[in-house]
Every structure is written in structure tokens, then in C-alpha cells.
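Record BlaI/MecI/CopY family transcriptional regulator, 139 aa.
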Amino acid sequence: MERQERQERPRREPRPRRRGQGELESQVLAALHAAPGPVGAAWVQERVGGDLAYTTVMTILTRLLAKGAVTRERAGRSFLWRSAADEAGLAALRMRKVLDGERDREAVLASFVTTLSADDERLLRDLLGEAGDGTATEA
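=>
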């Protein structure tokens, strides 16, 4: 009887932690906020770090462009990217997207308003009052 030798399997490296939904977009936006001006995708890739592929960065930038969160300008055969809004504007964009995805806007808004603190409710009333009289500033 021949003796079978047991082959040792190489140990697998642990997989990197999978990012949560929207986490990668947030990291790309944070990098763009820190940028000195319009930057290329390779610049963003360096700042976000990890083992992120250039094509992944381009996919995220293109998705953010479709959402209106970034702008791009042609620079030779590539693009330079910049954030289209500050962090408050980006949060407002996300809130609007969630609201637009719901069937019953009134119910969603009513539920949201009932969970506000007294200070936030007062602030919202003030902002709505300013918007009604045309004095509100754009985010």
C-alpha cells in the first residue's frame, strides 16, 4: 500500500474588511473636500488608500457625478474632479434622495418632523419662514 502524502494548503490571507454601503463614496468625497482644487482620479485613489483599484475610483466618481455630488472638467484625455457641495449640501442631497425614493412623501416628512428636538423644530420653522419670504440662502 502506497503512503499518501498530505499536501499542505497555503494559508489564505484574511480578506480586507468590506466597506459599508456609501462608505466608499464618503471617503472619496472627503478626499475631494481636502483637495487643493480639481484633482485627477489617481490623486483620489492615493488619498483613499488601501488596495482600491483605479477603475473602482472612476466608478465611484462617475456615480457621484450622476448624483450631482461632484463635477468634472476635461484635462487632456482625462478629467479633473471636484466636490460640488460642502458637507451640509451633500447631506441635504442624501436626504432628498431618500425622500424622492418614498411613495408617501407627506408621511415621511411628518414622521421626520415629529422626531425633531424642540431646538431643531424651531430652527426648521425659522428656515421655512425665511424660504417663504425669499430670504433663505442656498445650501
